[in-house]
Amino acid sequence: MRGYSLIECICSLCIVGLLTAGIAHLVHRSSSTLGAISTTLEQRFTMTKAGIVLSAALAAHERMHLPDVVTITNGSAPNTRHGGLHPVAALKGNTRPRTNSAILSIVEVAPRFRGRITKSSFSDQSINIDVCDSSAIPGPNTFRSHVAIGLAGLCQLTGTPERTYGGCFTLTGKAVQGLLSSECAINSLLEYIPVSREFSVYVDATGELRLISHVGQRIIENQPIVRGLRSIDINALSVSSKGLIYRLDLNATATRSHRFYWAAGLTMGSLWNEVLL
After folding, report:
1. Which residues contact 34 (CB under 8 A, 6 or more apart)?
2. Claim: this prediction has a pTM higher than 0.90
3. Residue 6 has pLDDT above 70, yes or no
């Protein structure tokens, strides 16, 4: 009887052990599956949010067709088109731009306040421009910076507009170095337009998508958007003389890359078209 009970006990232990091992295996597989699903959902959220942010940034130039207001720079060498340092080049530590990842920068202007420059001059290291034929006169604290358009290109100014006469105003300010050139060729300035906002979207050293606002080289806001990116690639593709498509490749840290296209409503015009409008 004792021997029979011992055999029963051994068999019972074996059965319990097998059941326990089976349950543990199922729990492990379930946990792995749930973990994989969670990671996939998290990556999809990252890609979706990053895509929305980048699309919204590109949509900011729908009302503009000025050259150089949309720039794509590589984080390995964050320089501007005119050879100056990009505003993000000053960032250090974890917030610095990741190498081999694109930086999308937008200078969004306010066409409603566009006007003709009737006179321009230097005075005490400041630049003075007289502007007329604008549909509205900007308030003294409405815009942080302004753009002067001339035959030599675009240059960026800071300053305060002051109403003068007959719907005209004078802007006295200084040229600033940033995404646009600080070299204002006084004798060739023809058009004025204020900057409503200026910002960049990029992936930092930790894989976080960031949006920074800046005026020239001065960063006034730096906020994280979403984590989980390895890099972003942005390429402007001209499909015709009147069309422009951006190809965006989002590379995540844990899943495959995602590619999508964004069609610009307007293509960038030539400088001559702008000054002869």
Report:
1. none
2. no
3. no
